[in-house]
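Standup notes, structure subgroup. Blocker cleared on the zinc ion input:
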Amino acid sequence: MVVHRGDGDGWTRCALGHRHWGLFGAAGLLLRHGDLVLLQHRAVWSHYGGTWGLLGGARNRGETAEEAAQREAGEEAGVAPGSYTVTGSYVDDHGGWSYTTVVAQAAKAELPTGLTGETLEVRWVPADDLDNLPLHPGFAATWSTVRAIA
Ligand SMILES: [Zn+2]
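Run returned:
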């Protein structure tokens, strides 16, 4: 059911003993507009299906986290790279595997319309309301930290 393939697609284990998707790590795009955050409702069949998280996925070999986050947001939801400005990032390093949250500011709170099968829905959610949603555990663990990156 994976709709796109890269050489980073695959499961691996980090130094903390977790199982993670992304042989070279993974990255996600935290797209913000004012107090709104763009969240992805993940397809039920996906890892932690049914939870809400960031558009993103596995990094490919030689690809920066920023490049991967932007590529995945485009592939999964049709988010155009020219519609936002990257302003910061945060690396959650588990040892042998890391997840980079790439923070970006969108010019407009537009809803992307190029959704693939990995996504049930995308929604702009007020930052204060995120805790009311069932969040992907990886995103939930870093949200309070990455929220402070403007
Ligand atoms: Zn881990």
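Discussed briefly. The chain has a mean pLDDT of 92.
Next: hand off to the docking folks.
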